[in-house]
Specification:
There is one protein chain. The protein has 333 residues and is mostly helical. 71% of the residues lie in helices and 0% in strands. Helix 5 packs parallel to helix 8 and helix 6 packs antiparallel against helix 8. The longest helix is centred in the N-terminal third of the chain and has 22 residues. InterPro entries: Prenyl_trans_a.
Length: 333
């Protein structure tokens, strides 16, 4: 395969890894969804990480830049590549998966990086309201932010795996994160970010009626908001990382937690028998939990009533009705 030839050139020192990344960027302008190109790109980035000797980026005014600065610049360049590829091919799952991988392995899922990404992708999703992959990425960002403030076992395990896979980043993480993490995480107003995301959903649903993607995203955001308000353990809080062997972001055989999430979100397939018999132990525990964020559900019901009373779009009415069914089932009312 051609990719194997490029790998041999890089390993032998004949080809500069950054030049190979540039060639891959050009290839993605013509084949933005090419899985082989994205897989190879991750392999090249892993070589740079493992060597702990990122070549100086050959850009004007950047000679002699510090390793940390070069890594940050490399992250930003990868974000730009992903954005361009996502714009060239609708619902470009491979591009958004790569973007998540970069955050996990280079950006280290710091609060600053996550918030920057949440801000920088807001306009993009607002102009691509049918792109499931773009909104799924924002869900990943929000779930990761929750994981920074309310870590559970999945978060801790994932962070440990990322560190073990990238030992060159460990020393940098210890020196850098210890100083900034406390200030970052204390200053982050997570409820406000979730509230703003729901407001974004409201604006987009009102402006672009009949888009199922927006309603699916609203369900996920409300689920996160409800979880945060009630301190309920978050199911499937962080997606598995994509490694150089190109594992997908979701397993081909979902875990019980993932299956429960699919059941909770799949309202169109909800019937009376499943609502009575399809509860797992986790579902029962969620039902028993005291509903502390009563204002949240009340506002959602008001929003649904407003849509149903004012909108004449058939699809919009169907999605609003399905969302109401999901709320009733999820909240156990």
């Amino acid at each position: 395969m051609a990719e194997q030839g490029w790998k041999e050139l890089i390993l032998s020192g004949t080809l500069n890894p950054l030049k190979d990344l540039h060639l891959g960027k050009l290839a993605l302008t013509k084949f933005p969804k090419s899985p082989e190109t994205w897989i190879h790109r991750r392999w090249v980035l892993q070589q740079l990480i493992q060597e702990n000797s990122l070549p100086t980026l050959v850009t004007k005014g950047n000679l002699g830049a510090a390793p940390v600065e070069r890594i940050h610049r490399l992250v930003q360049e990868e974000m730009d590549v992903c954005s361009e590829a996502a714009g060239r091919y609708p619902s470009n799952y491979n591009a958004w998966s790569h973007r998540i991988w970069v955050l996990q392995h280079l950006g280290k899922l710091t609060v600053k990086v996550l918030l920057d990404e949440l801000s920088s992708t807001k306009y993009w999703v607002s102009t691509h309201v049918s792109d499931h992959s773009g909104f799924h990425y924002r869900q990943f960002l929000l779930k990761s932010l929750i994981g920074r403030t309310m870590p559970d076992n999945n978060i801790v395990v994932q962070k440990q795996v990322v560190t073990e896979q990238n030992p060159s980043l460990q020393k940098e993480e210890e020196s850098e994160a210890a100083e900034a993490a406390c200030a970052e995480e204390q200053s982050m107003d997570l409820p406000r970010h979730l509230k703003e995301e729901l407001e974004l959903c409201t604006d987009l649903i009102d402006t672009y009626p009949g888009h199922e993607t927006l309603w699916c995203h609203r369900r996920r955001v409300f689920y996160l908001q409800h979880h945060l308000s009630n301190k309920i353990p978050l199911l499937n809080v962080v997606l598995p990382s994509v490694d150089s062997s190109d594992e997908t972001l979701t397993s081909s055989q979902p875990s019980p937690a993932t299956s429960h999430m699919a059941q909770a979100m799949d309202v169109d397939g909800l019937n009376e028998s499943s609502s009575k018999q399809g509860y797992t132990q986790e579902t029962k525990r969620l039902k028993r939990a005291p509903v502390q964020d009563t204002l949240g559900p009340e506002m959602e019901y008001r929003f649904i009533d407003k849509v149903l009373s004012t909108c004449r779009d058939v699809e919009q009415v169907r999605f609003a009705t399905a969302y109401r069914k999901w709320l009733v089932t999820f909240l156990g009312q």
